[in-house]
Q: What sequence folds into this?
């Protein structure tokens, strides 16, 4: 079975084709625009072409490299969030459009879970180990999730994900945990230093903290094998908060009502 996997939680969108757990071809925005993309003369400058703009050309390129078409796909996997507003929205809409047009099952993957699973497998964590994953939510806040490694080397969520100030999160990190995710970058220096010196906490390095597309495909294929797919019409991005534009509109609406 071929699985088209879209990782669109940040600016460096990635696309891959997997077959039964094996990656056939993968590219991300930086690789694609540097080595594979040849714009027409009338196209905008490279610097103006963001990852979301090139998502569909990246999909087409991956399919071409694997001698496949959309009709050959057995599953579409897409990061559902949390993450950056525009990439998530574009990724989910693109995935749903392809799934609808070609009657392909779709699975939306929690970015926090993908981060935790990648860490668990990379470090071969033992059952019961706790992984806490975080994503930058801007405004000094992070999206945080807590996961426990299972006997099957999967991860299960412990409690609900939360939107929390990075400083407050760092101060309440529990013992015997592994910390990962791009949200670690915005933890204040004092709290970050404190975490790095704790003997009961392991903080992953920056180069290990991005969302791994292999983990996204892994989660999606595992869920599909267990009959767990998403409803095409109800699948939507996990934002945790409205976009800045929506907040501005909401504020104007409240102001206009005299409140």
A:
């Amino acid at each position: 079975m071929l699985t088209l996997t879209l990782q669109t939680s940040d600016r460096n969108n990635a696309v891959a084709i997997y077959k039964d757990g094996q990656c056939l071809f993968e590219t991300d925005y930086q690789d694609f625009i540097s080595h594979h993309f040849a714009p027409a003369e009338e196209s905008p400058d490279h610097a103006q072409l963001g990852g979301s703009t090139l998502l569909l050309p990246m999909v087409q390129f991956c399919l071409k490299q694997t001698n496949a078409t959309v009709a050959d796909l057995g599953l579409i996997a897409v990061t559902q969030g949390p993450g950056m507003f525009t990439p998530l929205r574009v990724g989910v809409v693109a995935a749903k459009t392809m799934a609808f047009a070609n009657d392909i099952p779709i699975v939306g993957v929690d970015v926090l879970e993908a981060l935790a699973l990648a860490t668990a497998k990379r470090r071969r964590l033992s059952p019961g180990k706790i992984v806490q994953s975080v994503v930058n939510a801007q405004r000094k806040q992070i999206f945080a999730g807590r996961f426990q490694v299972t006997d099957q080397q999967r991860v299960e969520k412990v409690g609900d994900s939360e939107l929390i100030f990075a400083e407050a999160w760092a101060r309440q990190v529990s013992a015997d945990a592994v910390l990962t995710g791009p949200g670690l970058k915005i933890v204040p220096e004092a709290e970050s230093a404190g975490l790095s010196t704790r003997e009961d906490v392991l903080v992953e390095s920056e180069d290990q903290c991005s969302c791994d597309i292999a983990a996204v495909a892994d989660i999606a294929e595992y869920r599909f094998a267990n009959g767990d797919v998403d409803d095409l019409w109800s699948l939507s991005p996990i934002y945790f908060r409205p976009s800045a534009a929506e907040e501005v509109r909401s504020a104007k609406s409240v102001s206009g009502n005299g409140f």
Remarks:
- Residues 85-102 form the longest helix (18 residues).
- The chain is about 35% helix and 25% strand.
